Fold these 2 entries.
Entry 1:
Amino acid sequence: MVADRLHWKNRFTNEAIAICDGSHMDRERAISRRSLADSNRTMKTSLEVAIIRQLPYFVAVAEELNFQRASERLNIAQSALSRRIRDLERDLGEVPLFVRHARGVRLTPSGETLLEDAREILGLVERAASRARQAAQGHEAPLRIAYSPGAILSSSVGNLLKAFDAAFPNARTEAVLTPVEAILAGIRDRSFLAGLLYIDEVDPAFAAMTVAQEEFFLALPAGHRLAGAGAIRLAELLEEDFIWYPKSQPTTIRQLLEGELERRGVSLRIVMESPSAEATLGLVSNGLGLGFAPASTHWSQSFPDVVLRRIEDLRISAEMKLLWLADDDSAMLTKLIETACATVSAEP
């Protein structure tokens, strides 16, 4: 008898245990409750599927703002289209999506909100279908890696992108120049598998590895009075014009520079902004001011009239990191990280 009870306890949930013990509810009520829960789950799934199926019809009407034009676009009868919109409004909980007027319809506030989400949902469905078809045909999805403007001239980034391309011969590697904020957003929504950027603090949603430690040097024209100086100190730069990283972007380098200057009680004269190290070197080359660029920058061929010098009492270094979603356990990302580790280890 005891063995039988243990068998039932191990097999069923707490609700079933209550049945065997005879406590709080009788057998019929418990079975009925479990059946009702299963039924509710099935109904919820069916309702969600129904809503998704109606979204293409809703989007067509929302974009045309006219049932006749939308029905012609979808190649269905106008009456059938009207029924689908009514069904969608009912499935959403009697939510009105359109207001009719003499020349067509307009979206309600609820309709405007749904349109934004509907486009995103349909885009995700199409992307999922496309990836499934590619996998069935033996093609890997494109490997999309974002890199920030600050990483353009880094030799480490160039080596990594070449290594990624070689590691995935069956996939099209797309290296996309992207602002820092867009890199973070793109990794979150999985538009990018990973990103290469200068970043100090990493959000818990991400994981990262350091691929390079970059020291930033002063960039100045070759003909500048300090270009050939034995040593350059911060006090000698207070009357110089500087090209700065933009405040409109969350630039780690700018934040590091400004933090170090603030600690020293120093304020530099900033005359213009530049979105990247490459752009900064171009502006320095044209004599528009001084700037900061990574020491590893291969600038000599593109900007032969620019020199990079260390400031003795202002050492600025930043970590170039490979960033990805912490909960992404895909095989492609695993291979990407392994490739990055091997490439970084091989660098002198």
Entry 2:
Amino acid sequence: MYNNNNKNNMGCCLFGLIIGLVTSIGLLIYRIILFLLPLIPWVIKGLYYFIAWPFLAFEYGWNRGGVWRIIALTGGVLFGVAMLVAVLTAPPPAPTSPPTRTVIVVTATPSPSPTAVPVTNTVLVPTDTPSAPPPTELPTAVGATSVPATLVPTVAQADVATATVAPQPDAVAPQPDAVAPQPDAVAPNAAIPANAIAVTVKRVVDGDTIHVLLDNNDVTIRMIGIDTPETVDPRKPVQCFGKEASNHARQLLNGATVYLEIDDSQGDYDKYNRLLSYIWMSDGRMFNQVMIAEGYAFEYTYNRPYKYQAQFKDAQRNAQTQQLGLWAPTTCNGVASDIIPVP
């Protein structure tokens, strides 16, 4: 017959061991506290003398009078001057440089078809028809196609044309004149600099400030070279054409993947710890210049000239001449209600 007494005895022994261990730990803590209590007044007194010794030395010399008073006064003045110099000459903390990423683009080369069957292919044809230089050009990387900023078209992809391909013995090749180039076509991503950092737009604050997700961190971006009418500054009323500029920025950027270009001439961060950058959209256009060219923003130079200053100024003159956006007499006529640019 099964006996349950052994199980009960083991439970009692385990409970007794736990009680004994807890009691021992509590007794040890109690003894440590009793040992440290007499030392607390001495520690406090030592900290007091460590901190207050200059003032106590001054008081001692002042109370003795005579030459000691002069020594105390001179020492106090020198000590105060030394502390003031140390505070004023302390170097400011260096800003953290933004992280960089290396983007590797791999292009697959199609292999020849093993069969000689007539095929009709759809071919992407980015055209490169030369034309006279437009009044304003978006800044582009080396070898990229320029985009007139006055038109600022929305280009999502290259023009698509259908070509008939004649069968060859071991390969399928397009006929020489089957596809005619289309005017004003722009290859996607053609203008984005190679060193740009890809990020996702998390939130649009207004026309010149956004939040992006960079390495899983929420980073505030202040765009270089532009200033839009204020809409969120609590010190100012909503300015003329501010809501239109903010709404246009949200239409173009909300949730989109964009590319940040840092300008060494402007530094990494402004005084509000916002990362300074140009914003390139995935279609190859620069958002900063698009806002100026379409009349949603003013060109703005803060302290030093920046990389694309000439192009931005040309874009503003063009928008002003055509009376676009905030330059129109029916909107703001180029005045955003006492606008004070913020770098």
